[in-house]
Design a protein that fits this description.
Elements: E1 2-6, H1 12-21, H2 28-37, E2 42-47, E3 50-59, E4 63-71, H3 80-93, E5 98-104, H4 108-112, E6 117-127, H5 137-142, H6 151-156, H7 161-166, E7 173-177, E8 180-187, E9 190-198, H8 203-217, E10 221-227, H9 231-238, E11 243-253, E12 264-266
Parallel strand pairs: 4-5, 9-10
Antiparallel strand pairs: 1-2, 2-3, 3-4, 5-11, 6-10, 6-11, 7-8, 8-9, 9-12
Helix pairs in contact: 8-9
Length: 274
């Protein structure tokens, strides 16, 4: 018999294993963040005492974001995912926030049945090779500028300070200029960029930030999720041999926020695949 319930910490390993099998990137520290801050939004499906599916959500000032929605392959197309999703949606509706998620192309119709509307495609880019790159001392010093990040709230149209603090880890690398900042950290064998924000027109700042990222992370696989409408972002990363490896669609339920995707060079996705 399949039951839906709240998750326990000892099941994180099962979620990460399922995610790895799907080539998803899920960080254990982020799961702990959700568990510690939003335990009422972290559900699992169980066959007896065996976890077979998961779904999570996080809350910001005005929005909620669904992520880590996955069901074990042997249990798909049996209504398990639908039950998980409905359970979380009941909890989220009590929060009275606009709801976002990133959907794989083949499950967009599933979310559309719940009223979700597509907003923008999110393209995954990867760098899988070492690049010979020089970083002048002047640029290196500029990347140490302490950015106030005040415009982060403007870009996402809401306060996300709790999230920004939660993503920091021992492997974090923070690079800043006067007009942008880029955070990356290790998740498994990957270096994941989240977030990367640049002010309008500050293309040269974006160039400095990507050069700094590659210089300090050179030789490791670098992954980032880029809004498809940000042409500047796609231009600057492809010239450094980043290759598009997949695509999802960001969807929304409710009155969408005024998110400035033209300032977002990499999304802070939290296992955000459907």
């Amino acid at each position: 018999m399949i039951n839906i319930g709240w998750i326990k910490v000892n099941y994180f390993i099962n979620l990460i294993e399922l995610a790895n099998n799907e080539n998803w990137i899920v960080g254990e520290d982020e799961l702990h963040f959700i568990y510690n801050n939003y335990p009422h939004l972290f559900f699992a499906a169980f066959d007896g005492d065996k976890p077979i599916g998961f779904i999570t959500a996080v809350l910001h000032e005005k929005s909620s974001w669904i992520g880590n929605f996955i069901v074990k392959p042997d249990y798909r197309n049996q209504g398990v995912g639908k039950r998980l999703f409905k359970t979380l949606m009941k909890a989220l509706k009590l929060e009275n926030r606009v709801i976002y998620l990133n959907a794989n192309i083949d499950v967009i119709p599933f979310y559309a049945k719940f009223g979700f509307q597509p907003i923008v495609d999110i393209c995954r880019f990867e760098l899988n090779q070492k690049i010979n790159i020089n970083l002048s001392s002047n640029i290196a010093q500029e990347l140490e500028v302490i950015s106030s990040k005040n415009y982060y709230k403007t870009v996402f149209d809401e306060d996300r300070d709790i999230y920004l603090n939660s993503i920091l880890s021992k492997s974090s690398l923070n690079l800043s200029t006067n007009n942008g900042f880029l955070h990356s950290k290790a998740i498994g064998k990957n270096i994941v960029v989240m977030p990367w924000i640049v002010k309008n027109g500050a293309y040269f700042d974006a160039e400095k930030l990507i050069r700094g990222l590659i210089y300090f992370r050179n030789g490791k696989k670098i992954v980032m999720d880029v809004p498809s409408i940000n042409i500047d972002a796609k231009t600057v990363i492809t010239q450094y041999n980043f290759v598009e490896s997949g695509k999802t669609t960001q969807m929304v339920l409710g009155n969408k926020l005024n998110i400035r995707y033209d300032n977002i060079y990499a999304m802070p996705s939290l296992g955000a695949y459907g």
